């Protein structure tokens, strides 16, 4: 995989999905099920990865997902995704989820944050190279650096577990 593709700015991959939560989305407590939000996050992240890589990309890992506030039936939920970092065939996608309460006036509140790794694949399902992401501004440069920290931690954790298993 020595092909060098031209870079793409972060803005190229930005995608927003919005959805009103309904009664079929709830858990036993009556708030929106975490799995419903996880699928929503995976969908929007997949769209950003496909946009950046110009084709199919599969979810390889969910690095982190944090639920900050409960979401309720009737809330209008928005998920914002962008590619933060690129490797050779892999990409980190960051997702911010906000919610507008159906019964309250005010700014949307942050309800979840997630970081996922996608790998671009060809028709045979083999990894294919992705264009390097070109961070647009200071925030995107910060996100790029933070993605590298998450990657380093992920690889270090995997190496430590493999070492412990070999002992
Ligand atoms: C993701 C997948 C394509 C990787 O294939 P692979 O042959 O193991 O890939 P390689 O070991 O050659 O690694 C390719 C890239 O994937 C990354 N990768 C592989 N597994 C990973 C993991 N668990 N977490 C993060 N990155 C991973 C590698 O770091 C590498 O990145 P780079 O090219 O930027 O350096 C393959 O494991 C797969 O198809 N998994 C199932 C995906 C799926 O079904 N998802 C759910 C539905 S979309």
UniProtKB/TrEMBL annotation:
Q: Which Gene3D superfamilies match?
A: Hotdog Thioesterase
Extract one GO molecular function annotation from the record. Answer: long-chain fatty acyl-CoA hydrolase activity
Output the InterPro entries linked to this UniProt entry.
Cytosol_ACT (IPR040170), HOTDOG_ACOT (IPR033120), HotDog_dom_sf (IPR029069), Thioestr_dom (IPR006683)
A cellular component term from Gene Ontology for this protein is: cytosol
Cite the SUPFAM superfamilies for this sequence.
Thioesterase/thiol ester dehydrase-isomerase (SSF54637)
State the organism named in the record: Actinoplanes siamensis
Superkingdom per UniProt: Bacteria
The biological processes this protein is annotated with in GO are: acyl-CoA metabolic process
What UniProt keywords are attached to this protein's entry?
Answer: Hydrolase
Q: Which family does it belong to?
A: Belongs to the acyl coenzyme A hydrolase family.
Name of protein? Acyl-CoA thioesterase
* Domain annotation HotDog ACOT-type: ranges: 11-124
């Amino acid at each position: 995989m020595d092909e060098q593709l031209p870079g793409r700015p972060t803005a190229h991959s930005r995608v927003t999905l919005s959805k009103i939560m309904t009664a079929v989305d709830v858990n036993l407590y009556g708030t929106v099920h975490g799995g419903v939000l996880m699928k929503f996050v995976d969908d929007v992240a997949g769209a950003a990865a496909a946009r950046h890589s110009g084709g199919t990309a599969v979810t390889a890992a969910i690095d982190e997902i944090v639920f900050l506030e409960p979401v309720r039936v009737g809330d209008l939920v928005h998920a914002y995704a962008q590619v933060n970092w690129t490797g050779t065939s892999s990409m980190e996608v960051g997702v911010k989820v906000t919610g507008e309460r159906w019964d309250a006036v005010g700014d949307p509140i942050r309800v979840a944050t997630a970081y996922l790794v996608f790998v671009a694949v060809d028709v045979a399902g083999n990894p294919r190279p992705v264009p390097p992401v070109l961070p647009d501004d200071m925030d995107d440069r910060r996100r790029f650096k933070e993605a590298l920290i998450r990657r380093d931690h992920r690889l270090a954790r995997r190496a430590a577990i493999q070492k412990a298993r070999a002992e």
